[in-house]
Amino acid sequence: MSGTRKPGQRATPAGASGGMQLFDRDGSRKYLTVAERARFLRAAEQAPREARTLCMTLAWSGCRLSEAIALTADRVDLAGGVLVFATLKKRQDGIYRAVPVPPSLLEALDLVHGIREAQRRRGRGSAARLWPWSRMTGWRAVHAVMDAAGLSGPAASPKGLRHAFGVAAVSSGIPLNMVQKWLGHAQLSTTAIYADAVGAEEQDIARKMWG
Predict the structure, then answer these.
(1) Which of 40, 156, 209, 211 counts the most CB atoms within 10 A of its CB?
(2) HSE-up (13 A, CA, CB side) for residue 200
(3) SS (HEC) of 16-48
């Protein structure tokens, strides 16, 4: 029946890009909660070094897996505290966005991938991919850490980390237009789904109103 949806699903806003939602057709959550993301990052600490830094990058930047795999040393701005991603889902090439990330991530990237050393070479590391892996190899590395963290279901994926970043950003009071920029969304209506936070995140928002 037109207009009918399962509990836990929200109506798709008119003009929303691809009808992206935080729940699948069975009402299962497609993003990691704050606690689940913390479990994932703890498990990543025990993973091989390159897998650990990939997991950290996905969790703390909200980038797409393909965007992380394409990251080169020259796009790690240690002084500016940002990672610069080529936004791969735009219709034209050459669209970049800078995403602020924690110092701990930048330090880990430099330690494991030799960012400073690469940037001293000709081209400043423009040819030095941090993870010279296929997308499938990257996916398997992330999935292995999800398994180690005891996480499963639709949220236990690189996309689940990206959604978790969006929910956490909106729950923390980051303006939607800033979250849109960091995630590389073409339309603000796509980013607006993260305002539909649930569970612990929604309780945190409600407490601000009650207080």
Answers:
(1) 40
(2) 9
(3) CHHHCCCECCCCCECCCCHHHHHHHHHHHCCCC
CB neighbour list of residue 37: distance below 8 Å, 6 or more residues apart: 59, 161, 164, 168
Helix (H) or strand (E) holding 83: strand 82-86
Q: Which tokens go with 112?
A: 């494991």
Render pLDDT for 74-128 as a digit per residue (tens, 0 to 9).
Answer: 999 999 999 999 987 755 677 899 999 999 999 999 999 999 999 999 999 999 9
For residues 69 and 133, the answer to whether their CB atoms sit within 8 Å is yes
| Length of the chain in terms of residues written | 211
**Cα(172)–Cα(128) distance, integer angstroms:** 34
- Token reading at 70: 């394409």
Structure-token pair, residue 11: 């109506």
- The CA-atom distances, in angstroms, between 122 and each of 57, 60, 87, 125 are 25, 29, 25, 7
